[in-house]
Amino acid sequence: MSLNATAEAATVTPIADAAHAPRDQVWFDGALHDIDTLQAGLTTHAMHYGSGVFEGIRAYATADGAAVFRLPEHMERMRQGAALLGMAFDPALATEAVLATLRANRHRDAYVRPLAWFGEGGFGLDVEGHTEHLMVATTATRVHLAGTRARLGISTWRRNPADSLPPLKLCGAYVNSILAKRQSKSRGFDEALFTDADGFVVECTGANVFLVKDGRVTSVDHRDALPGITRDTLIALTGAQVRAVTVAELLDADEVFACGTAAEVAPVQAIEDRSYGDNPVTRELAELYGRVVRGQAETGRGWLTAV
Fold first, then answer.
1. Global pTM?
2. pLDDT in tens, 233-278
3. Concatenated DSSP letters for 240-275?
4. Buried (b) or exposed (e) across 147-157, using 16+ Cβ within 10 A?
5. Reduced to 3 states, what is the DSSP secondary structure of residue 129?
6. How far does Cα 40 stand from its chain's mean position?
7. Rg (CA), the chain
8. Between residues 4 and 220, the one the model is more confident about
9. First-to-last CA distance in the chain?
10. Which of 67, 182, 239, 242 is deepest in the core (most CB within 10 A)?
């Protein structure tokens, strides 16, 4: 196995007793464990080659208890990534694992990370014969750009082209994002903006991009960008135009914002030396999105899965 409970220290908590667990729990291959009792083997295939698929999901406190936002869509995207790797993936099992972990950890506002990967075996690129694993961890920590006005640096790195790596949440693909973000942060920015060789905007390292011009909201469209679930939500809520956008158009916009499950709706303060103003439309959309994910708006109630 590529991840296993240590022989004597492991504590497995049955789902029925999870509410009494004193430490954070992680779901691994069918059972809940104390999060600090698990190990990954040094020959884990995913560790060497990135042969895994993950999702970033959010749960929110609502008036009716915790609920997960657009869980079926996340599970379907994860299934697509697993299928490309030749990995078996059961969305129903993964869904129950997500809900069980949230219940176990008593999390209401939480970031949820399911991960499926190939485990221990040889060092070759073939995945056949490697064990397959699934885990779910949850954390109450806010991540990525949420709550900040980000300053973006335009990266000299290009986004993985879709005809080389499909825009899904494949583990190895995100080394590309790490390189871009490291470069931009070394230049004093918060985040990187990917563009293509023809001067079109792609996305940020882990978020899609929108612009506002003369009150009109536009969603950046690019074949190399992840088809984000938060992006899809905002398009549905706003009726945003969806089209290719040049860097020049982005710099000429009245407002720019990034969006994603972790980032939610994050206003952009600046791109390189171009600063933006008060971002009133972005602020209004962020407030609307906040009401939707917490079940406080009629729109989108079907997007919530009760924990």
1. 0.90
2. 999 999 999 999 999 999 999 999 999 999 999 999 999 999 998 8
3. -EEE--BHHHHHH-SEEEEEETTTEEEEEEEETTEE
4. ebebbbbbbeb
5. coil
6. 22
7. 20
8. 220
9. 30
10. 67
